[in-house]
Amino acid sequence: MIIVMETGATPKQVNDVVSRIKTLGLDAHLSEGEERTIVGVVGAPIPPTLDDEFESHGGVQQVVRITKKYKLTGWDFHPQKTVIRVRDVEIGGDEVTVIAGPCSVESEDQTVSTARAVKAAGATILRGGAHKPRTSPYEFRGLGRRGLEILATAREETGMPIITEVMTPADIDQVGQFTDIFQIGARNAQNYLLLEEVGKAGKPVMIKRGLSMMIEEWLLAAEYVMAQGNPDVILCERGVRTFEPLTRNTLDVSAVPVVRGMSHLPIFVDPSHAAGKRALVGSLALAGVAAGADGLMIEVHPNPDQALSDGAQSLTFDQFAELTPRIAAVAGAVGRSLCATGSLLGV
Amino acid sequence: MIIVMETGATPKQVNDVVSRIKTLGLDAHLSEGEERTIVGVVGAPIPPTLDDEFESHGGVQQVVRITKKYKLTGWDFHPQKTVIRVRDVEIGGDEVTVIAGPCSVESEDQTVSTARAVKAAGATILRGGAHKPRTSPYEFRGLGRRGLEILATAREETGMPIITEVMTPADIDQVGQFTDIFQIGARNAQNYLLLEEVGKAGKPVMIKRGLSMMIEEWLLAAEYVMAQGNPDVILCERGVRTFEPLTRNTLDVSAVPVVRGMSHLPIFVDPSHAAGKRALVGSLALAGVAAGADGLMIEVHPNPDQALSDGAQSLTFDQFAELTPRIAAVAGAVGRSLCATGSLLGV
Amino acid sequence: MIIVMETGATPKQVNDVVSRIKTLGLDAHLSEGEERTIVGVVGAPIPPTLDDEFESHGGVQQVVRITKKYKLTGWDFHPQKTVIRVRDVEIGGDEVTVIAGPCSVESEDQTVSTARAVKAAGATILRGGAHKPRTSPYEFRGLGRRGLEILATAREETGMPIITEVMTPADIDQVGQFTDIFQIGARNAQNYLLLEEVGKAGKPVMIKRGLSMMIEEWLLAAEYVMAQGNPDVILCERGVRTFEPLTRNTLDVSAVPVVRGMSHLPIFVDPSHAAGKRALVGSLALAGVAAGADGLMIEVHPNPDQALSDGAQSLTFDQFAELTPRIAAVAGAVGRSLCATGSLLGV
Amino acid sequence: MIIVMETGATPKQVNDVVSRIKTLGLDAHLSEGEERTIVGVVGAPIPPTLDDEFESHGGVQQVVRITKKYKLTGWDFHPQKTVIRVRDVEIGGDEVTVIAGPCSVESEDQTVSTARAVKAAGATILRGGAHKPRTSPYEFRGLGRRGLEILATAREETGMPIITEVMTPADIDQVGQFTDIFQIGARNAQNYLLLEEVGKAGKPVMIKRGLSMMIEEWLLAAEYVMAQGNPDVILCERGVRTFEPLTRNTLDVSAVPVVRGMSHLPIFVDPSHAAGKRALVGSLALAGVAAGADGLMIEVHPNPDQALSDGAQSLTFDQFAELTPRIAAVAGAVGRSLCATGSLLGV
After folding, report:
1. What residues of C are in contact with residue A69 (Cβ under 8 Å)?
2. What span, in angstroms and rounded, lies between the C-alpha atoms of B210 and C146?
3. Are residues C28 and C154 in the same domain?
């Protein structure tokens, strides 16, 4: 940490800063220039709130934290890219993974038929919501346990691993009995107790980016999970909130290379929630893969016009089947391939 | 709900829309103009996702929802302003209520001395965090139950009711044994299961606005609590996230009159979290009261430079004592008074 | 336009609305439901501010404008995609066009060498700033006329058409003597008099998106140019301003398919200004092409570390030469090709 | 400037940074710690783009600029608050100044009657648009020279100085013949050539904050004017663009104390453009004054429902007359008074 004193800081103010540093068992290194004094803080650990504290100290102009707040999620202590294996599917490796399925699990027929369709088109993981967060208390909130059972049936029928959202610590056990991957939704991305509890559950966790979450905060959310000893975290960009009304959210595609530069964790893109409109999903999916995403999460429904949630952004089976070869082509263009079980390539 | 068809919509597309409306047990009213057809949906209840569904229908240009999504929080079914009584303190009445106290409860001495100081200066409710949400897992997270006990002691010593945050459903019982008002933090403002559970706990609930929460979503969060039969909800604006780096958040002071126009619930302003810097807290507090806020929530600490959290934005005792008469003056200027127990006015 | 009256609107309030509509020479169509009255406005032209006016009328709940504010830029009156020919280069056709060059023209040597390098690597249009908008009055503002002469020399040497920014109406003549395409910068995207004047200058115009410009406003900026009889407008997404500090701006890649759905105009992506950091430029360029952009605008400099502006986001010659084959590959994957003069393909 | 090298930076990378600093005629001061090296740049002037340059240098982790980019607008070189005298009105002194008038000058009758009404209610400066920036080319754009003449007539009739917008350098002479204060609109706040030209015109200039302008950029816009030798600049906060749809813009009331802390220039608040809705204007005006604004700019129209622009946010004469005593009361509560010519106080 570097503390830049104001031009007019008094010797007493500088001394107060130095004393406070020493109180904490750290050392201070002074660099006295003609115009101002700069104090370097030497030693560790530096309390996480020390920059806040010094910023309001008398005579201090600016405080610069040099060390990163995140540790386990960064490259410094984990120089290999994280590759997660879920049943037969590898996430974060050379291949691009496509997760697809309905927003909500509505019935066994709807879910199993979607699973079959998306698998045939090249998806390798099935998504589906059993516990649904809804902005209004009067909307459909998912089938709960029955939804989880249906997802398990779809897994049996197709062999696809499943991912589903968990919304509260009390549901972790129940959801964990069924799911292969826990999903933390955007609105819970800074629900720290949920992150810690799910970190203890022994299964991979996907963390959607919060609607106005800075990327560093997102890595710190992942840090909450990893600090419980769970190394298998996936990040999923799903659009942030901006002033533009023509899309439900604004897909921050830059998050893909930015996260790659900061972290070894796999980074996915969810074009469906970002767009909020079916017609945009394909373009955003391709953009995500071109930017280097390790995977996509796409909503597909047998009859989107009658979906109980998010129908406007769900693709039909045909639309999804038309999209996956284009995803494969773009993946190929950036030196990757589509993770597929064979059916896509006609094997 | 009004469905505006595109200029070139085919009769079949119009019929499909009408059929779908009738399937739902609703009625359709057609208005066929020279350029386009407009379909009115008559009847109730209209499924909450129907606008989404129709927006992606063939031939539809635009869908306009006329009825509001929130009910219990709006003026339509509750034409009187909500006034909440917590022990001797009235919230949402003619007086402006000041809640003050430390960000985190750190010790009995720190908390009790703060309680005495803020009471003497005009605050009537004590705040203090026992369970703290922190961006990083490596920061101080509060004293937990011990913190709650300390708050209770401070209440005994001063007679001030207390408010403290609850972060997860499992903590509601414990926190409820001590607190007078539950606080839901900004990061949990769309943690719907927490909102529902706290709605059942039989005590007033303050909901901080989420960092990028639209005001309508905030009212729907309040709706989650009220739908459990709990009428005592307080809203608290504490700044939203924007591009401006010189403040921690951007205080949306317009939220005060906007909420007032939409809802009967008391609306507070938290200048401390909005500003993030002590030097701005006073101005934002006065702005909030001038805009019509029913109350303020201000962080005060005996020694802010050594606070375990949010020191940079906490006022000293002296700064707070210097601020409250100015708050009282502005309250007077807008036809209200500062809710005070006497000491302020020298009675 | 549809005017939704409040549930409790009085007959007088409805009549006032109807009278006002008739005063304007328009007709009103009433639809009186059980709960509320809805007024349709029939006829044209509807004054552009009428929705604002009615929104503050007594008894009005909501006003819905049905007709689009933009005309010339939309598909309705121009069902073919706009293709612009600048010397030998086609913009908006099947091929993806790459514009490249330095942020600022600094010297003949710097500009000509960059032109040769980017042409060899596959770019077909040269960019370079002679008049530079700078946040601070103390920064380098371009060589002015001398810069334009240098660009013209580079065009002679390489045959590449050139694009350069014009910042004020008084400079249009001078800039127009040299440039093939006028560029309107992001900070001038709502400088309406500049847009109109440049619309009269008889050359294609590229409009960068403003930092917080809604897409509809951007189309209206293009409308200002087109209303002068100039059909050759190119839109260029270059990132919008959000809360995320790790990128200079947030590239709104969704703007590509959204603009495509609304307008026949070519849409480009500028990954350099969006990212602000060299390491991100490649990924964003590929994302833009995958999303369907008609072209890219990329900053390249012989020695970025010593550039007089925007060095941090400029690619070296080698980095650009390494990137263009990847752009060509992604273009191929989405059914397009890189617009090239031969050198790239070894012809 | 401080350059923090990465932990793994090589001696060559450190040397390259030092060499580059020396090439610029500056000096480098090395502080080699156990973990990393920190390079201080000593001397002046530091090129404004040097931080960008070093941020992309090999081995550099972070660059910290210590000196501020703005000079003339800051307190360092101008420790007294700027007070501007326009005819009989003092701006930036102890009194709060209210500017009021119609959005657009529509007719002599409309403007003169408004001037009389707002003067009677306590305003001391008249606003009115003769050249109007409009999002769409098809909207009313003001009466131009005729509008300026009408404003001058209103000044003669009432004695109030006038403020009106200038949109392009070519209009400065014409507008300057009439106006007392030039207004630069939000969309032109980074139109640097306009700022420079208006800076030469020898009259006070009010700069509205751009829709997504950081406060530091705003001060730099003022710096453009002041660098021409014009010390009389007024800043006016009018709302920034956020995700919240219920207000036209989000009034950043914090800008008032933040600007006060950074600059000696007067800071105003425009509640009308921020709110976009008449019903909110009063609350925001009071909030601005409570936060410490030196003045307000409020739209008033004899018949807002039929205004040619911004009718929805304009107050009627009665509404304005009802508001000014409340403004005076809040001004009094924060130790100021309403700048009034006597009529308000019945003198």
Report:
1. none
2. 53
3. no
